[in-house]
Every structure is written in C-alpha cells, then in structure tokens.
Design a protein that fits this description.
This protein is an alpha/beta fold. It has nine helices and 16 strands. Strands 1, 2, 3, 4, 5, 6, 7, 8 and 9 form a nine-stranded mixed β-sheet that branches. The protein has a seven-stranded mixed β-sheet with strand order 12-11-10-13-14-16-15, with helices on both faces. A hairpin with a 2-residue loop joins strand 8 and strand 9. Bound molecules: S-adenosylmethionine (SAM).
C-alpha cells in the first residue's frame, strides 16, 4: 500500500474524503485543504492514467508522515526527504520545492526550519540545492521534487512525486460578459482540446454569453440558447446566433453539433437526464462541457452514477471523460468529455 496526499479547495476536505472510495482509496486523515489516503501501489504505466478525482487538484503519490521535533530536526528531515526523492538520479534541471504549513503558527516554525534546511542542503547537496525552485509554476502534470507540509507540532507530511489534475487560474478577457468565461476556458485545458474554426457549438443556458463568447472568439459557430439577453462582447458577435428557446426542449438540426455547452442553475440530475444523456445517446454532440451545480445536494452519489455502470453512466458513453471541480468553480463541478 502507498499513501496519497490529496489537496483540494478549503472546505471540501470531507467531500473529497468521501469521494476517494469511488477510486479505490480510503481516507485516513484530513486537514485544511488536504486529505491523506491509503491507496494501492501504482505501476509506472498507471501513473500516466487519470483515475478521475473530482475534488482533488493535486496528489502527492508517495506521501509519508515524518516525526520531527525542533526546527533543526525538521530541517534534517527535509534534507533526507530531498535525498530520498533524487537518490541515484542526476539532477540537471530546476526542480519544484513546495514547503507549506497548516496554519499561521506552524508557518512560523516552518520559516525557521526553511532557512536551516536551505543551509544544510547547500552543504550536503550543493548542485541539487542550487536547482531548488519554490516559484516554479510552469504547467506540468507529473513532477518530481519535494512537497512537504507541516501538519502539526512534530508532524511533517512529505513526498517527492506529485500529479496535478489540471485546474488553474485563467486570464480574463475584457470582452467577456461574465466570469463564467473563465470556467469554460479552464475546462478546455482539462479536456486537452478547445472549439475551433469550422466547429459548431450549442450553448444551453448561454446568457449573458461568456461561454459563447469564448468559443466564438476561437472561430467556432455558436448557437446560444437562452431567454435572457447576451451582453458585452457576446451581444451582436458575428459568430453567435442567439435563440430565445427552452434549453430542455431545444434539439440541434441535422447531424448535431461538434460541442455541447451547458451551464444552467438547475438540478444536476435534471441536466443529466434531460440534456447530457439524451445528447450523448442521440449522437448530437462529440465533445461537451457541462457544469453541474452541486451546492444544494450531495455530489458523491451523483459521481457514483456518472462513473458507474448503470443507466446514468457517463463513463460507458464516453471515450474521454473528466469530472473536476475547477479552480473557477464554486459549489459546482464540470464534466468534460468526448463521446464514443
Ligand atoms: C449561470 S447562467 C449561464 C452563464 C453563461 N455560461 C455565461 O458564460 O455567461 C445560467 C443561464 O441559464 C439560463 N437558463 C436557465 N434555464 C433555462 C432554460 N430552461 N432554457 C434556456 N436557458 C435557461 C438562465 O436564463 C441563465 O442565463
């Protein structure tokens, strides 16, 4: 067995702990913004696959709890943890160093230990120390370095291999009529694809038009379905046709659309049963980005349906499926995928 340390948005630790058994893991402990879990050991091939965490934004795959006492012991434990991560490997590139603490008081202790740790690391592993980078931010799905978190007096959680699940802060666009624009832009990164020229998009519940604007700016042709008005850069955009219709009744003409977008404040089960599943079963879209508002319900049984084998299974209907709580999601989750 190995231990995984998953990180999440603050406030979602208990939900993440309850999600983990869907992916074969058992939570053993949690703290602010993290959940520790027991997991089966993964092979290198499995490390490349995505088990489908929704509420986790990163996972330390080789987490271990180290007992530390004084600042000096903490510094020594951090040096050991670096050595364990790189043993037998030449280090030629800058590597990520993430040192965190659970609260202000622990942060004070960590500050003292950090200075001593950097000093000792320079002494013991000069070259490795010179390549440590606490600011390294470039996108990377799997990185090797040191992730260490002081979680209590005398307790350090450390690991060397971290999988990032793709959530990230996006840049706003001055023409975008809503902050929702950021969600769809982030969702493209999770799917690894975005709408482009000669592609068609149906955007259900489109107003004021952030998602429609995003797709139209990338050259796609958009049908924006909403009784409300489009605003900002979406109003009168040449790539957007606004139809004042009911999204639940709307059906695409001809062979359907390349993309289905849906972002309505509605019951997730209604969106699933009356929109996403019929669209996939009808072959009316190839790709989809569907945001589900889970604030008023328990998202875990819903995730169970989506990943399960039953009638509401999304997994069985999709070639690619990712369901994530995005950086720009609040009490929401976003499903992205590609049909068979
Ligand atoms: C959260 S907003 C969508 C924001 C949009 N994605 C954006 O980027 O600006 C939800 C929209 O769904 C629309 N809506 C709700 N129920 C609808 C229905 N049955 N048919 C069409 N639109 C609907 C609302 O009018 C509202 O404009």
């Amino acid at each position: 067995m190995s231990q995984h340390l998953h990180t999440c948005k603050p406030g979602f630790e208990s939900i993440l702990a309850r999600e983990l058994p869907l992916h074969g893991e058992q939570a053993t402990r949690q703290g602010p913004g993290w959940v520790l879990a027991e997991a089966q050991d993964s092979t290198d091939a499995e490390l490349g696959t995505d088990p489908g965490f929704c509420f986790a934004d990163a996972s330390v795959l080789d987490a271990r709890l180290v007992e530390v006492g004084s600042a000096n012991q903490t510094a020594e434990a951090l040096c050991q943890a670096v050595w364990q991560g790189f043993q037998g490997q030449g280090v030629a590139e800058p590597w990520r160093l993430r040192l965190l603490a659970d609260d202000e008081e622990l942060n004070g202790r960590l500050r003292v230990a950090r200075t001593e740790f950097r000093k000792r690391l320079r002494r013991k592993m000069g070259r490795v120390a010179s390549l440590a980078d606490e600011e390294l931010m470039d996108r990377c799905d799997l990185w090797q370095g040191l992730y260490a978190r002081l979680v209590g007096y005398g307790e350090l959680l450390a690991g060397n291999r971290v999988r990032e699940w793709g959530q990230r802060r996006m840049k706003d666009h001055p023409g975008a009529p809503s902050r929702s624009f950021l969600k769809v832009e982030e969702a493209y990164g999770i799917l690894g694809r975005e709408p482009g020229p000669r592609e068609s998009v149906v955007d259900l519940g489109a107003a004021p038009g952030g998602w429609s604007f995003s797709a139209a700016e990338k050259g796609a042709t958009v049908q924006a379905i909403d009784n409300g008005p489009l605003k900002g850069g979406a109003a009168g955009h040449p790539g957007i046709r606004h139809l004042r219709e009911d999204a639940f009744r709307y059906r695409p003409a001809g062979k359907g659309a390349d993309w289905l977008f849906c972002d309505m404040i509605e019951s997730p089960y209604r969106v699933l049963d009356e929109i996403l599943l019929p669209w996939l079963d009808g072959g009316w879209c190839r790709h989809f980005v569907v945001n589900l508002k889970v604030g008023k319900m328990d998202p875990i049984p819903l995730l169970g349906h989506l990943w399960g084998e039953g009638e509401r299974s999304l997994r069985s209907r999709c070639r690619v499926l990712r369901i994530r709580q995005l950086f720009h999601d609040r009490e929401e989750i976003t499903c992205v995928g590609e049909s068979h």
